[in-house]
Task: structure prediction
Amino acid sequence: MNDLENKVSLITGAGSGIGRAIAMRFASEGSRVVVSDISEQGGNETVSAIKKMGGESIFIKADTANPKDHQRMVEVTVSQFGSLDIACNNAGIGGPSATIDQYPIDGWDKVIAINLSGVFYGMHFQLQSMLRTGGGSIINMASILGMVGFPMSVAYVAAKHGVVGLTKNAAIEYASKNIRVNAIGPGFIATPLLDNNLDEATKNSLTSLHPIGRLGRPEEVAELALWLGSPKASFVTGSYYTIDGGYTSQ
Result:
């Protein structure tokens, strides 16, 4: 039997990168997958890829900075598939690059809205659904920058530190309700988010920061997400797992 047989999962930011890899991996283990993304094209491409491998999936276009979109995502998921068993709050953006005194206020607001408030909004409605059905697993995508700082990225760092705090608090509040909440802290992963925001020289510089000698792959993060979402991690809650090629060990 597959690890996620008969489970229903909802993954935000699943139109590309880490989110798409998680959606595909969950589907390969038997989960029915609800793909959410702001990009209609990317989301539908993920759904199509899942269906080609014999999986069951639907797409919901949503803005994770909008709490009403989160409510709708959960409602559609339950209406379509009967429950919500696993939620992965993965959607995020990089934001501007600037020192704090020069950091644009609107850039700060946008990064916090998507990367931090979006995770809270997601959990707010996901937890309500899981409480009604007797349990579930929530996986929040933080970052190594939820643990350490990084120059010129104040909003991203603050948001990801906040995600780790949200995760720990939720884990304590819902541990007795059969709901597990954990966070993943990837190092720099070779995704479109990185490709679209960094030049080759910068990417090479980032690669050198990882003792393992390369950037991570989305599929590697998906394997960790799969484990956290599965019964194999039944005693794991409130944890923050780095997957960073040794970055934070230095």
Observations:
- The helical segments are 17-28, 40-52, 67-81, 105-133, 154-174, 192-197, 200-207, 218-229.
- Residues 105-133 form the longest helix (29 residues).
- The domain at 8-185+218-236 is CATH 3.40.50.720 (Rossmann fold).
- The mean pLDDT is 96.
